Amino acid sequence: MLISKEFEAYLDVQKTHQLDASQTTRRLLRRSREQIEMSTTLLQQRVPKIWHPEPPEQ
């Protein structure tokens, strides 16, 4: 059985892990939003029309 100091230490470790996970999640979500914004910007740009000459007649 855990004594109160050991239990408090255990809870502190769990809180630290939870905080790290929350920070990682927020960082990944922010990066995803930035990537989506960049993709949207690229998709709104004009695409150059590529000219293909007629194939040679045989």
What does it look like?
With 58 residues, the protein is mainly α. The chain has one helix spanning 4-44. The protein contains 1 helix and no strands. The longest helix is centred in the middle third of the chain and has 41 residues, at 4-44.
From the helix content, strand content and strand pairing, which structural class follows? mainly alpha
Instruction: Estimate the strand proportion.
Output: under 5%
Q: Return the average pLDDT rounded to an integer.
A: 88
Q: What is the 3D form?
A: rod-shaped
Measured as a percent range, the helix fraction is: over 70%
The profile of the biggest β sheet is: none
Number of helices: 1
The H-and-E topology, N to C, reads as H
- The number of distinct β-strands equals 0
pLDDT < 50 stretches: none
Rounded to an integer in angstroms, the radius of gyration calculated over CA atoms is 27 Å
Distance between the termini: 90 Å
Write the layout of secondary structure elements.
Layout: H1 4-44
Concise overview:
Helices cover 71% and strands 0% of the residues. With 58 residues, the protein is an all-alpha fold.
Features:
rod-shaped; 0% strand; single chain; 58 residues; mainly alpha
